[in-house]
Known about the structure:
By secondary structure, the protein is of the alpha+beta class.
Amino acid sequence: MGLSARQSKTQPVAYGVRRQSAAATALFVMATVETMPRRRRRCALSAHSMTVAAHFLLGLAVLLAVALSGCVTKAQADAQARTAFLAGQQQARLEMQQNHGLTVRLIGAVKTPVIPWSQDLTLAKAILAAGYYGPADPAGIVIMRNGQAIPVDPKQLLNGQDVPLESGDAVQIK
C-alpha cells in the first residue's frame, strides 16, 4: 500500500474521538503495521486485538445491561406509575384512618389544625396547643363528638370551666 511519509507517522485515533467503519479501521491498522519495523508489528497487532476485544466486551456489557434492566413501553411505564400512585393514596388514607382516633381536629383560626390526643387533653389545652390566632376571643365553640354537636360557651371556658376532650373530637372555633 503506498502511503506518504506523513501518513506513515500517523498514530491511531483514540476511541470515541472519530468513528470509522470496521473495514476502514482494519485497513488503517494494516497500513500502519506495514510501515512499522518488524519488532513493533507484533505489539501493534496485539494492541489492535486488545482494542477490538475491549470494544466487543463493552458492547456485550451494554447489551446485557439493557436486557437485564428490563425495557418497558410507555404504556407499561404509565401503568406502573399509576399503580404506584394509587398504592400511595391508599396508604395515606389508611394512615389517616388509623390516626383519626388518636387525634383531635380544630377548625377555625388555628396554626395547627390536628393535635395528638392524650388522656388529660381538655378544650383549653387543645386551643393553646393548636395556636389560636383569632383577632378576639372566640364568639362560639362547638365540639363535634360521634356526630353530635356539643356547644361550649367561651365565657365559661375563660372562667375555668374546662371540658375534657375525647379521641376523634372535632372542635369548631367561631
